[in-house]
Each structure stands twice: as C-alpha cells, then as structure tokens.
Design goal:
Blueprint: H1 4-17, H2 30-37, H3 41-53, E1 57-60, E2 64-67, E3 72-75, H4 82-88, E4 93-103, H5 107-112, E5 121-130, E6 133-143, H6 144-147, H7 152-165, E7 170-181, H8 184-190, E8 197-207, E9 212-221, E10 225-228
Parallel strand pairs: 3-10
Antiparallel strand pairs: 1-2, 4-5, 5-6, 6-9, 7-8, 8-9
Helix pairs in contact: 1-3, 2-3
Length: 232
Amino acid sequence: MKAAYITIHDKIKDDIDLGIWKIGQRLPSERDLADEFGVSRMTLRQAITLLVEEGVLTRKVGSGTYVASTRVQEKMRGTTSFTEIIQLQGKTPSSQLLSYIKTQPNEKERQMLHLDSKENIVRMERVRFADGVPVVYEVASIPERLIQNVKKEDVTNHFFKTLTDNGYRIGKSHQTIFARLANDKVARLLDIKKNQAILALRQVSYLEDGQPFEYVNSQYVGERFEFYLENN
C-alpha cells in the first residue's frame, strides 16, 4: 500500500499531466490542499516537497507554490540539434565547453562512426543549458575529416547548422534511452544530488547518404527534460 504522501504526489502530478493544473498556475494553500485530500499538513507538505525536488512544482517565497515551467521536451522523431529544440521551446540555449580534443577513437566510437583504423575524431565534452539552467551533460564524438577545415567555435556552438552550411544534408538518428544514477562529476556539473536518477541517451546521427557524423553520450536531468514519441 502506498504511503499517503505518495498517493497525493501521484494525483497532483497526474492532474498536471492532464492539464487540470496549467504551467505557471498557482496551487491552493497547503492548508486547503490538506483539507481536500483529508490529510495532515505535514503529510501534504511531504508530497509537495517531493514534487518540488523533482522539478514538477516550484516554490516562490511569499507567493506560494506553482506548476513549474522549466522542463524542455524533445520529440523522438527525426534528427534535431539541442539548440533547435531549446529555441522551439521559446528558451535561450547556451553551452559550457569542458574539453575539445583531437584523438584516436576508442573501439565503441570506431564502431558507431564506421571509422577505419587510421581515422581520428574530435571529442568534445559540454554542459548544455536552457535559459541558464543546466539540462544535459554530453560527450560528442565527430569524425575529424568532416570538420578539419571548420572553426572550433562553429563546431561547439552550432554543429548541425555548420554541417548544413557546408553542404551536408542531415538524415536520421538512432537513439537509446535508459535510466542511470548521477555520479559525483555529473551531479556537480548539472547542479543536482549525487545518485539522483537521470536519463541517459546514446545517439548516432547520420547524413542523408547514411554516413554517421556524430556519436553522443548524454545525461539529462529528468525533471528538466522529457522525451516523447510521435507516430505518423
């Protein structure tokens, strides 16, 4: 049997998903909600606190509790850059570059990018933000031959646009999503707690001719980002 605060947590979250509570809408007071659910204010507060920690709700000092509006959505269809996704949500994208190196690929990178034994890659490590809030930590691997005459800034700031500007046509992508726990490094970079559940994404993106041009391992803050499927 679920604890009372978990039941309340699930009901409020379901109501938000159904649109009963709108993004940015202020919730009733804890006293009124406690009365509505027939529980103590302490029990009600446990449910609200958990929803705040998950990023579903947000507290504003002296004002109340509101449905949060910081979660970004990505439609799992086609190949779209993070920058485009964030801009389509009406938010401002930005990145913090942690490393950018030319190196030999490891076996997994060689396999995913269809590289021969003599080819090098550029591996870049970044934190990506939406309106200044850290959303994802990613490590991207790119065949060096595709960007050897491209400025580093053009690769790190708008890689997909740089490819299309240079005559390449973006094709499909293959994505694998799974759950994992944030380690010390990821927790620090994304401003979350160690061992917090996060969404991990492995993605290989291809040009229209079937040539893979990017292999990315990403770790998303679950309460700030969600994936959804859309079928034709």
